[in-house]
Amino acid sequence: MEKFFQFQERGTSYKQETIAGLTTFLSMSYILIVNPIILSQAGMDKGAVFTATALSAIIGSLLIGLLANYPIGIAPSMGLNSFFTFSVCIGMGIPWQTALTGVFISGILFVILSLLKIREKIINVIPKDLKHAIGAGIGFFIAFIGLKNAGLIVGNEGTFVSIGNLKSAGTMLAIFCFILTVILIVRGVKGAIFLGMAISAIIGMFAGIIDKPEKIIGAIPSLEPTFGEVFLHLDQIFTPSMIAVIFTFLFVAFFDTAGALIAIASQAGLMKNNEIPNAGKALIADSSATVIGAILGTSTTASMIESTAGIAAGGRTGFTSVIISGCFIIALFFSPLLSVVTAEVTAPALIIVGALMAMEVKNIEWGKVEIAIPVFATILMMPLTFSVATGIAFGFVLYPITMLALGKAKAIHPIMYGLCIAFIGYFIYLS
């Protein structure tokens, strides 16, 4: 087992990988609660979506761990489940069965692009400064999510955002958890992020901030309401609106996953010579999970950026993903316990991991304005637009432009020019 996962080469151990897997699972376990809530608003059965969410995470995480040896958790994407429900089903009036078929088709196209190594090629030709910017940008993005979930940052009509109510019980718990975890990290305590979340959850229950679960074991909901619906509606996808939906699923998921993979590989020290080893296998794993997830009854899956929490806790190999998969299996039976892992408990982990990922900015050549402007746009637009793909789009449009302005056309790979044009089209489509 140690040889298969290359423990010695990557400087890790069973204990380190197990703690990392538990940390990532706790950081992303909210998806089991939130995904059914979001998709149920499209008319889907909440219980069936819960089971589909767990099974897609189990299969996807296991695939990426065994095939690519990456410490990554795969689960339904938060951005794309919202697009599925609010833009496609509610906004466009498309039935969830047809929309799910669109996810299925986009997943198959994902697999084809991965098998042909087109996705891997695109990721590897991205300039190193943009790769560092993507990693740092995702860091700022998930830190912003953490601040929002903790109640430290709230919406404000006058100033867009402002500081929240620091006296609220949930926010005070998040602040305590944040300070505790920072102290543990600075002191070099192994598994500090996991310990911080566990201690905070226990304190939250005793303080009455978090509701104690009414029971420990719950029945696994049936998949019958959603399973296999994609095969019954294949004839309904050949319309201009559905083709546009499939393209959007494909386009956004492609760069969301690419961004997450780049950030995770960079943080884990897996990137070599500006390339990600086994990227093709990792991409096949996440695209296969999307196909399987659609058949089971959930929206597009992706490599979860919360995986960076596990990497910060020491995750370096696919054994971390195996642990994540095992945790989701257990979660199927112990779903009531997930209620104690609230947003206030996980938010500090996201803020801290965001800070660690933001350290990527030190590797960027800020002294060159032709590089500084595109990477700054990439980093800034991720949290401001609440979209990894949109941040990447800004960088991919500006980078070739600044290089051309300096007469460095040959320094840019032809694929980057193609992506620049594609992203311009993406912006036109969004407007």
TrEMBL record:
Keywords: Cell membrane, Membrane, Transmembrane, Transmembrane helix, Transport
Protein name: NCS2 family permease
Coiled coil: none
Domain of life: Bacteria
One Pfam family here: Xan_ur_permease
Species per Swiss-Prot/TrEMBL record: Cytobacillus citreus
InterPro entries per the UniProt record, alphabetical: Azg-like (IPR045018), Azg-like_bact_archaea (IPR026033), NCS2 (IPR006043)
Family: Belongs to the nucleobase:cation symporter-2 (NCS2) (TC 2.A.40) family. Azg-like subfamily.
Localization, UniProt: Cell membrane
Topological relation to the membrane, as annotated: Multi-pass membrane protein
Positions of transmembrane segments: 20-42, 48-67, 100-118, 130-147, 167-186, 193-210, 242-264, 313-334, 340-359, 371-399, 411-430
